[in-house]
From TrEMBL:
InterPro entries: D-isomer_2-hydroxyacid_DH (IPR050223), D-isomer_2_OHA_DH_cat_dom (IPR006139), D-isomer_DH_CS (IPR029753), D-isomer_DH_CS1 (IPR029752), D-isomer_DH_NAD-bd (IPR006140), NAD(P)-bd_dom_sf (IPR036291)
Pfam families from the UniProt entry: 2-Hacid_dh (PF00389), 2-Hacid_dh_C (PF02826)
Enzyme Commission number(s): 1.1.1.-
Keyword field contains DNA-binding: no
PANTHER family hit by this protein: 2-HYDROXYACID DEHYDROGENASE-RELATED, GLYOXYLATE_HYDROXYPYRUVATE REDUCTASE B
UniProt-recorded name of the protein: D-glycerate dehydrogenase
GO cellular component: cytosol
Residue ranges constituting the D-isomer specific 2-hydroxyacid dehydrogenase NAD-binding domain according to the UniProt record: 117-293
Keywords of this entry: Oxidoreductase
Domain D-isomer specific 2-hydroxyacid dehydrogenase catalytic: 19-325
Family: Belongs to the D-isomer specific 2-hydroxyacid dehydrogenase family.
């Protein structure tokens, strides 16, 4: 990793507009340019990055191996304004000697809060109930209207028991849900907190009245929830996804909802976001959000600061804990 005089501020290209405090710091510590267009920078990054020492990229920017190879030689460090880094080919960056930084930990609780909101929204069909009120369809109170399910009689299956999965488990346990999980490896007892470990996703699914997808998006896990696996859920189970759209085969999920195999969904992430397959918009029993898991003022600010810490560490020759390269 090269060092850089702090007096010659490194040139930083940010492909999205950070929170005001992060922007202010970035302007102080870097010679900053911000891509402010409404659409993602895409392939234009190659030309736009010419002469820049560092990039601050967003989860919607795809920096695959071909893109990384074509980045101008001036680019010496990359930070992504996200904990997920499925959109950045870290191995390709490593081959070019480019360090990559992400934003772990600071968003864990906020994303888990949103997961819990989606579990509740799916279980109580709040989106459908609210629509009926707004559309003037709210009739006389009746015991059989607007029925959902009680969380304290349901089992929550967590697919991916990393930091966010564990934070979801803590919340769901407080609501009285029984916790089941599948993870690459079993957690130590103090982190497992009574949750039941399942060796395989296939084992987890029949025990999931609500399935919460919290796994990282890797090529091996693409479409982990396909038609065959969705059929293993108890009939009428609910599916929540706060991780990445690629983990679920969307067409299979639509079919499962229409067939009643999946009773409700709560979704914050989509396969080709921000483009939304129109079939989502007609999907019954669904609460759909535009990838806002980490979107609190506090968290987005902390993420931006952590990304800048990583970039700065590179230019001051220190080591940052959020470095992704091996
Ligand atoms: C992340 O940081 O990976 C989130 O999905 C972005 O909100």
């Amino acid at each position: 990793m090269s060092t850089h005089s702090l007096h010659a501020r490194p040139r930083l290209l940010a492909t999205g507009v950070p929170t005001p405090d992060v922007l202010e710091r970035a302007q102080r510590e870097f010679d900053l340019k911000v891509w402010r267009e409404g659409d993602a920078i895409g392939e234009r990054l190659i030309d736009e990055a010419a002469g820049f020492d560092a990039l601050l990229v967003m989860p919607g920017d795809k920096l695959d191996a071909s893109m990384i190879q074509r980045l101008p030689a001036s680019v010496k460090a990359i930070a992504t304004h996200s904990v997920g880094f499925d959109h950045v080919d870290v191995s390709a960056a490593t081959r070019r000697g480019i360090p990559v930084f992400n934003t772990p930990d600071v968003l864990t609780e906020a994303v888990a809060d949103l997961a819990m909101f989606l579990v509740l929204a799916a279980a109580r069909n709040t989106t459908g109930a609210e629509a009926s009120l707004r559309e003037g369809r709210w009739g006389r109170w009746a015991p059989s209207h607007y029925l959902g399910r009680s969380l304290n009689v349901m089992r929550l299956g967590i697919f991916g028991m990393g930091r966010i999965g564990q934070a979801v488990a803590r919340r769901a346990a407080a609501f009285g849900m029984a916790i089941h999980y599948h993870n690459r490896s079993r957690l130590p007892a103090e982190l497992e907190r009574g949750g039941a470990f399942h060796e395989t996703l296939e084992d987890l699914l029949p025990s999931s009245d609500v399935l919460c997808v919290c796994a990282p998006s890797t090529p091996a896990l693409r479409h982990s929830l396909d038609a065959r696996r969705l059929a293993l859920l108890p009939r009428g189970a609910m599916v929540v996804n706060i991780a990445r759209g690629e983990l679920i085969d969307e067409s299979a999920l639509f079919e499962a909802v229409h067939a009643g195999q999946v009773g409700a969904v709560g979704i914050d992430v989509f396969q080709r976001e921000p483009a939304i397959d129109r079939r989502w918009l007609a999907l019954p029993h669904s609460t759909l959000l535009p990838h806002i898991g980490s979107a609190t003022r506090e968290v987005r600010s902390a993420m931006g600061m952590l990304a800048l810490d990583g970039l700065r560490s590179h230019f001051t020759g220190t080591r940052a804990s959020n470095l992704l390269n091996p």
